[in-house]
Amino acid sequence: MDLQKHAQPADTAPRPADLRASDADRDRVADILRDALAEGRLTAEEHAERVEGVLHTKTVGELDAFIRDLPAAHERPAAPPYASVPHRPRPGSLPADADTSVVAVFSSAVRRGRWRAGRRVHAFAVFGSVEIDLSEAVFEYQQVVIKAVSVFGDVQIRVPENVSLRGTGGSVLGNFEVSTLDSVQSDAPVIYVDGWSVLGNVEARPRRGKFVADILDRVQDKVERAHDKVDRKLRKYLGD
């Protein structure tokens, strides 16, 4: 009897170095380069050249090449210390009137893009759908309360990844779901979703890949602060 040999499936899992780099990966490398500049391990020209390269990398392996010769790249990263969320605003501490109201009755309504999120947002869907997208919003206050009510309707709320998100509410023959988030940044916005649904849906969750501040703004700010620190050290050294 012939024995048939079954071919073993090839291991097609990509190597860690071949994985696509995220904004968080680039931000981590930019932090290491900034510290290396402040410590005098890199010149200003080397730092600028490497940061420029970091912004155009595609894989994790390409990112590692920019910090391979720096000690910080070989240290085991500590687990991020999640910041404690501020206490909920006390009753009466926020205006009763909404800064923004989005209402849909037998229709649909959307608020998205670059808009200013106030302290209180109201969303009402009655036989309709409402979308509140905060992924590109400008946060003027650290705490934002969203009151969401759905009656035979749908309320969808999307937030950036690097905020804290909390929810309090319920549903009657419907769905009320808030995906809790904890930011690692103590000054990150905190969004509270309060509400209820009757034969409807209220859902709040992060929009992956969206952040309150994008990588270019953060890197530019850190580069400027690093240059200022180096300048102060040079002036002190030269006796100015």
UniProtKB/TrEMBL annotation:
InterPro entries, alphabetically?
DUF1707_SHOCT-like, LiaF-like_C
Segments passing through the bilayer = none
In what residue span(s) does the Cell wall-active antibiotics response LiaF-like C-terminal domain sit?
A: 119-179
- Residue span(s) of domain DUF1707: 19-71
Q: Please report a single Pfam family linked to this protein.
A: DUF1707
Stretches for region Disordered: 1-24
The organism is Streptomyces bauhiniae
Query: What is the protein's name according to its record?
Result: DUF1707 and DUF2154 domain-containing protein
Q: Print the organism lineage.
A: Bacteria, Bacillati, Actinomycetota, Actinomycetes, Kitasatosporales
